[in-house]
Design goal:
mainly alpha, 14 helices, MetI-like fold
């Protein structure tokens, strides 16, 4: 910019626009052949070749945006309907259509099944074993998770990783392991016979207590895994502050750790309760002939008795219990919230 008094350019002033354009043209190759014109800062120079495939990508993106959301959901819904919903609909229809024909549905089969003492006993046994196993798994899992997360000891991280592997084990494998230990000819009874003599006292695996022990052993890691994830969100500064104020370990657990772990504890317990209600392999492999649950009753009526209508009725009842408890599990799981800050080991 020129000084109005001297007519000379002021030192430190911005160069004129024409100088900026010349510098930009020189930087692009000296002939103004660059892809962007300084005079057109927001657009390409006229005649600049387009990026290959740009128009095709633009058209394809336009078609993708034109597809409604329900069209994208059709393929997974079709697979879900074919693999799961259609067989479930057949079971539900069989439960209200005893003759399997297309006649009017009837709930007479439900009345017959509900009136049977075997069904009522199986329902009560299923609920009692499921509630007992869930309570045992929740208590044991909570204690073990606290030890792994907050008590430093050699191999703590390896044990935490082993829990993830344990979740992939089939249920009958744990039952067979318990049979090798506490079975009639298992290690415990053999050791008793060698040291004391006579028949060993461990003969409970074929009862409800054996099923309870096997389910607690198998399902405890399913409670520990979400608890360890929740404990990893607990700020260690809170624990250190509580300890510095003179709080003992039980009080720290009750007032600091437990409130943070309640959503995960309830969610893990709900998941275990649902799985216990549907457990079939543990009851079958323990050989507890006097223990009949809803899944084993379905197997007995369908395979042994050939009464498919009654089996479908029992299955529908079991499904209703499982879906209701799974809804509770999802509700409790949605209340879990992560926190920031330093983390404990998990």
């Amino acid at each position: 910019m020129a000084d109005p008094n001297t007519g000379a350019a002021r030192v430190g002033s911005a160069p004129p626009d024409s100088a900026v354009r010349r510098l930009a043209v020189a930087a692009e190759g000296g002939d103004g052949g660059g892809p962007y014109d300084p005079a057109l800062p927001n657009g390409p120079r006229a005649g600049t070749p387009a990026v290959p495939g740009a128009e095709e990508c633009s058209r394809r993106d336009g078609r993708s945006r034109a597809l409604p959301a329900w069209a994208l959901a059709l393929p997974p819904l079709a697979v879900l309907g074919l693999v799961f919903l259609y067989p479930l609909a057949l079971v539900a229809w069989q439960s209200v259509s005893p003759d399997g024909s297309g006649g009017s549905p009837s709930l007479a089969a439900y009345g017959d099944v509900f009136g049977q003492a075997a069904f009522r006993q199986a329902l009560g046994t299923t609920v009692l074993i499921a509630v007992g196993s869930t309570a045992g798994a929740v208590i044991l899992g909570f204690v073990l998770a606290i030890v792994i997360a907050f008590v430093p000891f050699p191999g703590g991280k390896a044990l935490s990783r082993f829990i993830d592997v344990f979740l992939s084990f089939p249920s009958f494998l744990i039952t067979l392991a318990l049979l090798f230990i506490y079975g009639t000819v298992g290690m415990a009874n053999g050791l008793w016979a060698d040291t004391v003599g006579g028949t060993g006292p461990f003969d409970f695996l074929h009862t409800s207590w054996g099923v309870l022990l096997a389910e607690v052993t198998y399902f405890t890691p399913f409670v520990m895994r979400p608890l360890l994830a929740a404990f990893s969100q607990v700020e260690t500064a809170q624990l250190e502050a509580a300890a510095s104020l003179g709080a003992k370990a039980p009080r720290i657990v009750r007032q600091v750790i437990l409130p943070e772990a309640l959503p995960s504890l309830a969610a893990g317990g709900s998941l275990v309760l649902v799985m216990c209600l549907n457990e079939f392999g543990i009851v079958l492999f323990t050989g507890a002939k006097g223990v009949t649950t809803l899944p084993t009753l379905v197997y007995s009526k369908a395979i042994l008795d050939g009464d498919y209508t009654s089996a479908c009725v029992v299955a529908i009842v079991n499904i209703a219990l499982s879906v209701g408890l799974y809804g509770l599990y999802r509700l409790l799981l949605s209340r879990t919230r992560p926190a920031g800050g330093p983390r404990a080991r998990a």
